[in-house]
Design a protein that fits this description.
Layout lengths: L7 H14 L13 E6 L2 E7 L8 H7 L13 E6 L11 H8 L3 E6 L9 H8 L3 E4 L4 H6 L1 H9 L3 E8 L4 E4 L11 H13 L2 E5 H7 L14 E6 L19 E4 L9 E4 L6 H13 L4 E4 L3 H10 L4 E6 L7 E3 L9 E7 L2 E7 L4
Parallel strand pairs: 3-4, 4-5, 6-12, 6-13, 8-9, 8-12, 9-10, 10-11
Antiparallel strand pairs: 1-2, 1-3, 7-14, 13-16, 15-16
Bound molecules: NADP nicotinamide-adenine-dinucleotide phosphate.
NADP nicotinamide-adenine-dinucleotide phosphate binds next to strand 6, strand 7, strand 8, helix 8 and helix 10.
């Protein structure tokens, strides 16, 4: 692997690639987030990122952005990409063909693409074509933007983020549900809407749909709304809740019985919220090309995912309010350490990574 020595300029442009890749929202679905930069004589002459599954890859957008006056420099330029370019024709053409067609002589990327049929094949192909290739497999910023691809290709399921807010005394909601309650402040709520724009599906339990009647939109942040996925094995939803009046395809509903009274895409799972049921949910979501999903509660659903071991990251807000009595927040497995701790407005945000997914 030609990844030594580390060239400082390579690292600087790969950092720019990671930044561009991170601009992509949930419309990349189960595709990788990829950024690309074309550099000639220490000057960026083109850049782009993959924005939407089925549409142009980062390399294509990058080369298309090169101004007419710079096009003659393309063969002498270095193409930086956050991920190994693809060499297979899927919904769009192979990027290795584009690189060869444009006559680019040097390609630098961070990680190999673990997609079957790519994974090193592109390196071999480019090298055979006389193109210089440098790789930086340990470059952390691009690993983080594509965490979902590694989960998909190694575990065969979407990446799962658990997200919830607890009161200062560790409760998800107060015992008294008569009044509307808030645990987090406006800045945290906006951040949650931003996260929603980045994950194509949000899962919630049937009881949360009925009790909270959430809209699950991104109204506080510009970006696509996620698709609501409801796990309602006790058939509590009535079909009149806000979520069923939503835009687009409407929710995907997993039910206990074959009910005909709700107009939504439905899948019957039976009455038990166990690992087998969750496996079926995840298999369906993978089939529908969801690369990353967020579980936004409530307690029953979060606990079911935790006890099945189906989680990769947990984002937990702790507010200042105290409820005294109510529904207890779930506990993460013993030994989980926060990898990030920040103050968002008046709230504490802690992020945990599952050490053994
Ligand atoms: N603070 C937060 O971040 C946050 C986020 C979301 C929701 N919440 C709160 O959480 C509350 C809802 O939480 P929740 O735990 O009651 O419900 P939930 O997680 O929304 O839904 C879980 C559903 O699964 C059902 N269930 C539980 N165990 C089961 C089993 N073994 N087999 C089959 N079905 C099973 C439950 O049935 P039953 O209805 O019969 O119990 C419930 O309908 C709401 O009041 C909401 O306010 C808080």
């Amino acid at each position: 692997m030609a990844s030594r020595p580390i060239i400082a300029e390579d690292i600087a442009y790969l950092r720019r690639c990671a930044h561009l890749a991170g601009l992509a929202d949930s419309r990349v679905r189960d595709n990788p987030r990829v950024g690309a930069v074309l550099v000639y004589q220490h000057r960026i002459i083109g850049e782009g990122y993959h924005q939407r599954a089925g549409e142009a890859h980062a390399e294509v957008n990058c080369l298309a952005s090169v101004a007419a006056k710079d096009r003659a420099s393309i063969p002498l330029a270095t193409l930086y990409i956050s991920l190994e370019p693809c060499c297979i024709t899927g919904r769009t053409g192979a990027c290795t063909d584009l690189i060869r067609r444009e006559g680019i002589s040097t390609v630098v990327f961070a990680q190999r693409d673990t997609t079957p049929g790519v994974d090193g094949q592109s390196v071999a192909l480019l090298t055979r074509a006389g193109i210089t290739v440098r790789e930086y497999p340990d470059f952390a910023p691009t690993l983080a933007v594509n965490a979902h691809r590694r989960v998909l290709t190694t575990m065969g399921r979407p990446r799962i983020i658990l997200k919830y807010a607890q009161s200062a005394d560790g409760l998800l909601r107060p015992a008294n549900r008569r009044e509307k309650y808030w645990i987090t402040g406006p800045v945290s709520r906006r951040l949650v809407h931003r996260w929603r724009a980045d994950t194509a599906a949000v899962l919630i339990g049937g009881r949360t749909v009925v009790e909270d009647d959430p809209a699950l939109t991104t109204r506080l942040f510009p970006g696509p709304d996620p698709r609501p996925v409801i796990i309602d094995l006790r058939d509590r939803c009535t079909g009149k809740e806000k979520i069923f009046q939503t835009r687009g395809k409407g929710p995907l509903l997993f039910t206990g019985t074959d009910r005909q009274d709700i107009a939504a895409e439905k899948i019957v799972l039976g009455p038990d919220l166990n690992k087998a049921a969750l496996t079926q949910v995840l298999t369906k979501l993978k089939e529908q090309r969801y690369g990353e999903v967020t579980v936004e509660g409530g307690a029953g659903l979060l606990r079911a995912f935790l006890s099945a071991g189906y989680w990769d990251e947990a984002r937990i807000f702790t507010g200042r309010v105290r409820f005294g009595q109510g529904v207890a927040a779930p506990s993460l497995p013993a030994g989980c350490q926060a990898v990030q701790r920040s103050t968002i407005g008046d709230d504490l945000l802690e992020v945990f990574i599952n050490p053994a997914p």
